[in-house]
Amino acid sequence: MRYSKFLLPTSKEAPSDADSTSMKYMYRAGMIRKVSAGLFYYLPYFNMILRKVNFRIRRGMEKLNSNEMKFPILVSQEILESSNRWNAFNKEMFKLKDRNDNGYAISPTNEEYATLVSNLFVKSYNDLPFSIYQIQQKHRDEIRPRNGVVRAREFTMKDAYSFHADEKDLHDYYKLMGEEYTKIFADLGIKTFPVLADSGAMGGNMCHEYMAISPEGEAEIGFCDACGYAANLEKVECKDIYSIDGTYKNKYDKIETPDAKTIAELMNMLQMEAKQFVKSMVYNADGNLVMVLVRGDRNVNEVKLANFLKATNLELATEKEIKSIGSVMGFVGPIGDLQNVRIIGDFEIKGMKNFVVGANEKNMHLRDVDACDIKCEWADMRFADENDVCPKCGAPLHVSQGNELGHIFALGKRYTEVMDSVFVGNDGKNHVPFMGCYGIGLERTVASIIDQHHDEKGLVLPMSVAPFKVDIIIVDTKKENQVKTAEELYNALEDAGVPVLLDDRSERAGVKFNDFELIGVPIRVTCGRSIENGKLEIVRRDNGETVEVEIANAKDFIINMIKNY
Ligand SMILES: [Zn+2]
Questions:
Q1: CB crowding 37-61: b at 16 or more within 10 Å, else e
Q2: Cα(173) to centroid of ligand 1, in Å?
Q3: How far apart are CA 84 and CA 140, in angstroms?
């Protein structure tokens, strides 16, 4: 490709709304331009890198005997209702109607189609295992699109689905898929590790996320150096290591706290630390009101709450709903004459004494409350943090940020059962197949490559993902011998199958060198003054190593360099 013809609009600055490192570099390296919140133009350089990622993923799927196909992007309401998912995605799924008023969704994931395809082709145990996948655009109505292409409203996903005669076969395949994921990301130059995660709207009984550590990552991971345990923070179990001291005594004071509704306002008014309060949050869980108690400096872990209640929809209660239980917004607490509300206290509160809670009266709180004064169910309702212990081995737990690149689920019979999948087993009887599903987000994979491979000057792309292996720079396009040497090497390398960017622009040499560093081509060849001595300068982008090579040997030298890069 000739740079003069290539749409590669590099720039010194990123726009002020580029809200992450990868987004800034993608913008500066001419890879993307924003259309509107969460929607982007993918420019050629980004597409070329995406294609490399795409190709590596395809190879992995072929190794696992998965068949590439394509499902429609639109899914009917009827199909999504057959698996009870028409309402499971809340507002994240785009929905629309056709001219006859039939409901459709733009599918955010395709378990239903995959199950229907399996129903078409799997008849007996001889047809299993059966695996299919696609690489396709996905759409989600993100509440707050952010981090550029990492959390966009449209993105590319590889989604694979497998079907098995028994659970052991599913778990074996799940394990192979996980191992292949680690290899795929490693080949693309990304360090990832699998963490135990929550399966959310997908259902099923086991899932792992493949996380790339990133200081700007949007997921929090709890991990243990001692035993290797790693889980999404929303999933890290906080053990019940507390016990209630004392018996119900009801000896607390009611105090006036005018207009102090938040923990911060109360801390200021009473001169107490956040840890000395208990927050009472009221939720509407599938139509039932639930009060959750956590220490004042903690947040309710809504994933744990939803799992505990087996609830699909969780929303904070309205002022009216809070009134209906006999309380007042801003002054809610677990003690008093409350109706129609289930109260769940976080385990940690069992170990607390002399704390402050809302008094269920306007401008009033209760002081010197002990855990033994509260009548409630106890459960794990908070997020683990740096001071907690590993739930597996008890060693100190650490917390770090990461980006989720892939997610694999052992779904079991969650879909196959409700969608009437059957096969004839080797016992001659009908059985329901076990199912797994396996996703990779392609744009966020590219974002993680950039996250892990850049310096202050720009990208330092690994050879495996670099669209051009070599950038030949003509220092002065007015010098005929420079142009001639560059063109000859360009043609020779292209003929040998090496993708080359030929910088034939009539720009200053400094601009060309800067762009080479910004877009991160692994090898630079400089056609400048040295060719008068019959030599070319060759520079590695990753370590800056520079050599001069005879022009006649340049092609072979570069091909060898690519092999050993
Ligand atoms: Zn551990």
A1: ebebebbebbebbbebbbebbeebb
A2: 26
A3: 18
Q: How far is the CA of 225 from the centre of ligand 1 (A)?
A: 7
* CA of residue 293 to ligand 1 center, whole Å: 27
Separation of CA 416 and ligand 1 centre (Å)? 35
- Gap from CA of 210 to ligand 1 centroid (Å): 19
Which residues sit opposite 196 in a β-bridge?
208, 231
Distance (angstroms) between ligand 1 centre and the Cα of 389 equals 8
Cα(287) to centroid(ligand 1), Å:
38
- Which domains are present in the chain? 3-236+399-450 (3.30.930.10), 253-379 (3.90.960.10), 468-564 (3.40.50.800)
For the stretch 181-213, pLDDT in tens is 999 999 999 988 888 876 665 556 788 999 998
Distance 223 CA to ligand 1 centre (A): 8
Question: Tokens 């034939």 correspond to what residue?
Answer: 504
What's the pTM value of the predicted model, to 2 decimals? Answer: 0.79
Tell me, letter by letter, the H, E, C secondary structure of 190-232. Answer: CCEEEEECCCHHHCCCEEEEEEEECCCCCEEEEECCCCCCEEE
Cα–Cα distance between 280 and 317 in angstroms, integer? Answer: 12
Distance 395 CA to ligand 1 centre (A): 5
Contact status, residue 489 vs residue 436, Cβ threshold 8 Å: no
Eight-state DSSP code of residue 420: T
pLDDT tens digits for range 419-465: 999 999 999 999 999 999 999 999 999 999 999 999 999 999 999 99
Q: How far is the CA of 340 from the centre of ligand 1 (A)?
A: 40
For residue 241, the CA-to-ligand 1 centroid distance in Å is 16
Helix (H, G, I), strand (E, B) or coil at 305: helix
Write out the two tokens for 440. Answer: 């990779």
Distance 230 CA to ligand 1 centre (A): 8
